[in-house]
Amino acid sequence: MTHLSSRASARRTRRRRGATLFTAALSALALGGCGLWEPVDTSQIEKQAVDPDARVIRFAHQYDPAHPVESCGAATLRSELADDGFTVETYPSGQIGGEGETTEQIATGGLELGVVGPSFLGVWYPDAAVLDAPYLFTDVDQFDEATTGPIMAEVYDEMAEETGLRVNSTWYYGTRHITANVPITEPDDLAGLKIRTPDAPLYITSFAIMHGSATPMALSEAYLGLQQGAIDAQENPIPTIDVQKFYDVQDYLNLTGHMVQAVNIVSSENFMDSLTADERAGVEDAMEKARVATRDCIVEAEEQTLQEWEDEGTIAINDEVDVDAFQELIADEFPSKVPWGDLYLEIQESVQ
What we know:
9 strands, 15 helices
């Protein structure tokens, strides 16, 4: 326990000194993904019955209305908070801007809730980007333990104090794997491959360590890039791979599991302070139920899609990846490449 305490103390000391250079360097993360199923009519959201006396909570995110963030997470919030006198109005599909704009509107009071990825939060508070790090977790159970545990709670409390942004809940987004036209079984297999990633420094750093070459590209351009040979591979959660139909232009799904990915549900401290004790307790309870509902929906979609691909021969599934070899490379080099390497190690150790 002593080494964990000293590491946490060092992390707090470092934070007090600031990390402005990294903050300036972090770019916005374009989280790959949209709907898991066919798009639905967004007018159904607008037509929901609204209690004229209810307090409105506006909730914005980037995913289409069929995505579990909306169909499982937001739907649970709406149902649970209705009894507490709230109406949750959702704005899916980036209707009011990207995650950067969403964060700014939350900070300035123009929006009550939004989905913000860790790298976007890292622009405001560098340590918050840690959840976008590779091989931080090996499975969803570790993810749940850490993202609901005391270490991240401390990070989020300190972020709220410094920035006024409050993480209310952290939801599972999916586990990222690599597709390619060759099997990727060990790090050397990535050598020479151009791998499409979001345009975020963490991806470029991570894949360089894993012997690959990250090629930042918009998700909307990835299919054509793979088809034309501008890139050789890409990485995303299984539901996103399914929606984007990357299996049409890739031969192998390589189960690298290099990122068990999070999205944060963010509000402002001003909004939370405006609630009564009972209202705040109701919001926190609804957030927890929505977190579990979203996780369960996405885990089920991942499992079902993988089984369907295997049964139907949609894409060759390489489950013989030497994950340990990739993890060892990351363990040896990654913590020294980021300003929050001590936090990364602290979280990893806490879930072992």
